[in-house]
Amino acid sequence: MIIYRIAHKTGQAQRIVGSAFIKAIVVALLVVGITASSALSLQVDAATKPTDVEGCWAEEAISALVDEGIIAGYPDGTFKPENPVTRAEFSKMVARAFRVRAAGEPTFSDIKDNWAKAYIAALTEAGIVSGFPDGTFRPWKDITRAEMTEILIRGIKLGDKMDSLKQPEASFIDVSQDHWAFRSIEIANALGVLPVHFGVVFEPELPATRAETAYMIKSLIDLRIYEGKLEKTDNQQGILTITTPGGVEQQITMALDTAIYRNNVEAELDRLLRGDEVYIVSDVYGEARFVKARGLVTKDDVTTKISILSKGTLSPPDVEALARSDWNSVREGLEPKLIRNLVERGLTEEEATTILKQNWAELSELAKKRVVGALSDELGVSQDLIMALLDSDWEQAKAYGQIEVAQYVLMKLLNL
Questions:
Q1: 143 or 268, which is more confident
Q2: Is 15 inside any structural domain?
Q3: Considering only CA atoms, which of 359, 384, 364 is closest in space to residue 373?
Q4: Residue range 114-130, pLDDT digits in tens
């Protein structure tokens, strides 16, 4: 059973009851209402195909959304696909696409007389859009690609499903991991809903065009989202069978590059277990693009998590061997990685090898200082404590440790 599919469906025609006079009054009121609400948007809500989208790369998406009444063209019959989209226009599109009903009063100081205030208020209340620190929304401002992507991912309520997952590598050379919209951009990219012409350069501050907006909205509302309990996994065919809360059995096919996570750890299909609670996002063709499963914590979950925390230095099998205190079984494969890490921190290869052989006493005083400095920076504790620990001076380490804790508490109390 599909829990929800964000798609516009044509409603059944309403039965018209009453005299011709009542019909005329109703029609007149509707015309006045529509004109008043959209006069400033420079758009008309006609389902006629715009005259200037034939051959456009987003023609199919634009035509579909126009037919569904989600977006509209201009009074002259054009759509102007390469024109930018204002924040007000975009709010209307999103509210219609995701069926967010207006509720509440506008909370921004600059939208009280704006034609899109009802849409903006609705999206604000739903937590989909937000304004600027000065209390404005700036409805006339062109929406950027980053803003568009962030709002659309909020619209399908998928961002919170991925918040606890492993931070992905940056897919675009101009959107680093510290960019405010990085997570949403990566989610959109993983779902395959970004325009292909973005390539490896996202240009987050560039105004989004009407064609780009239409393409992304159509791609997102065509996603299928499933939720339920895993019943069976066919690893050879790449098919999951789940039972939805309504008791309906559903089969979902995996794509070749489906992102699969179990207990917030990246996993292969065969790691999923019967009884896992699953959340699946499939594309319009029914292939899963993203699977998040949660269930009984297994040894594989733990070892993979530790491997991730070691930033790849330890593989899951290495973690298992170390848990058995079997250093010798991983020494050959692990030592080169550890030596490289120590060399990157300023040691020579000879010094790094000496450390791994646990011959701390054989190091020169200069080498000891370099090691201590590197570990201090990495762990965030004092060099004195590191030196005491490496010298196996436990009483001294205990004293330094007590001082560290005391300093930490004092700093917290003084808000330093």
A1: 143
A2: no
A3: 384
A4: 999 999 999 998 889 98
